[in-house]
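User: Some background: our group keeps a shared notebook of sequences we're curious about, and every so often someone picks one and asks for a predicted structure to add to the entry. Today it's my turn. The entry only has the sequence so far, pasted here. Could you supply the structure so I can complete it?
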Amino acid sequence: QVQLVESGGGLVQAGGSLILSCVASGLTFSTYSMGWIRQAPGNKREFVAGISRNVETTYYSDSVKGRFTVSRDNAKSTVYLQMNSLKPDDTAVYYCAANPNLVSVPALYDYWGQGTQVTVSS
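Assistant: Of course. Here's the predicted structure to add to the notebook entry:
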């Protein structure tokens, strides 16, 4: 059974930082690209960042480029999202997701975590 478990969300003031983690089990982690997707209330899911299975390629949405950094540790089956210079518009539930290929369309991801809430106050 595949499980993706996110952690690290919380409440932070605008301009602050958070690090999200996602630990995977039940799959061969190194054969999957990993993505971070967020969903704010009333909005559709939005791709935020992704990293290829071999760590060579990363991809970011324009809204977070330069502020967020995605990384992974295949030995720990863990993917991270370092979020800096947070804005109130970043408030959302953040999900990690897995797909064999690095894709930016949320619906194409095969496996999803339960999500972690990030709230940025102004």
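Suggested note for the entry: The chain has no helices and eleven strands. Residues 41 and 101 are 28 Å apart (CA to CA).
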